[in-house]
Amino acid sequence: MKNHALLSYSEDLKYFPSYLEQLEMESNGKQFRVDGERLLITPVQLFWVESGRMPNIVFQLLHQGTTTIPSDFISLL
C-alpha cells in the first residue's frame, strides 16, 4: 500500500491524527532495518487531514482521483 488516508470525523478526535501520524511514521517511515540494511520495499506513505475539517480537495482526490487510496473514517458515537 503506497497511500493511506486517515480521516477523523469528530472534533473530539482532534489530536488523534497527530498521535497516529507520529506512531506510524516512527515505525514505517524508515528506509533502513534495525540491523542497518536498506529496506527492499518502500515504506508506507501517508497523508493526514485535520479533525473535523474535510476540505473539498481531499474528498475530490479520494472520489475522483486516478489512484486508489484506502481510507479509514473514524468518528465517535
Furnish the topology, listing elements before pairings.
Elements (H helix, E strand, L loop, with lengths): L4 E4 L7 H13 L18 E3 L6 H9 L6 E4 L3
Parallel strand pairs: 1-2, 1-3
What is the C-alpha radius of gyration, as a whole number of Å?
Answer: 14 Å
Share of helix, binned = 25-40%
Give the end-to-end Cα distance, rounded to a whole number of Å: 29 Å
Mean pLDDT: 75
Tally the beta strands: 3
Report strand order across the widest sheet: 2-1-3
Count of separate structural domains? 1
Q: Sheet with the most strands?
A: 3 strands, parallel
- Topology as H/E string? EHEHE
Low-confidence runs of at least 5 consecutive residues: none
Q: How many helical stretches?
A: 2
Could you explain the architecture of this structure?
There is one protein chain. Helices cover 29% and strands 14% of the residues. Strand 1, helix 1 (16-28) and strand 2 form a beta-alpha-beta unit. The chain has helices spanning 16-28, 56-64, and strands spanning 5-8, 47-49, 71-74. It is built from two helices and three strands, in the order βαβαβ. The protein has one domain (5-74). The longest helix has 13 residues, at 16-28. The protein is of the alpha/beta class.
